[in-house]
Amino acid sequence: MKLIINGNEKEFSNNKTLLEVLKELSLEDKVMAAAVNMEIVKQDAWDKCRLNDGDKLELLDFVGGG
């Protein structure tokens, strides 16, 4: 399946959850916000959020500073 992640198209095998995709991208341990098709997905629901071909993911990580 094709997903659009932060504006870039990436290919994954079908029937993945958001958490599985984040693991493939080595991002599962980062402090971040995730939205699927413009809807925020809480971190405790990442393993239940099934993705579909063409879904748009926005992944935002937080950087401390001052």
Task: Please give a structural write-up.
With 66 residues, this protein is mainly beta. It has a single domain (2-61), classed as Beta-grasp domain (Ubiquitin-like (UB roll), Roll). The protein is 11% helix and 33% strand. The chain has one helix at 18-24; strands spanning 2-5, 8-11, 32-36, 39-41, 56-61. Strand 3 (32-36) and strand 4 form a beta hairpin. The N and C termini lie far apart (40 Å). This is Sulfur carrier protein ThiS. It comes from Sulfurimonas marina.
Low-confidence stretches: none
Q: Main sheet: which strands, in order across?
A: 2-1-5-3-4
Count of folded domains: 1
Instruction: Give the H and E element order.
Output: EEHEEE
Largest sheet, described in full? 5 strands, mixed
> What is the 3D form?
globular
The overall strand count is 5
Q: Please report the number of helical segments.
A: 1
- Any guess at the CATH architecture? Roll
**What share of residues is helical?**
10-25%
Briefly note the structural class of the backbone: mainly beta
The CATH topology name reads Ubiquitin-like (UB roll)
- End-to-end span in angstroms? 40 Å
CATH superfamily: Beta-grasp domain
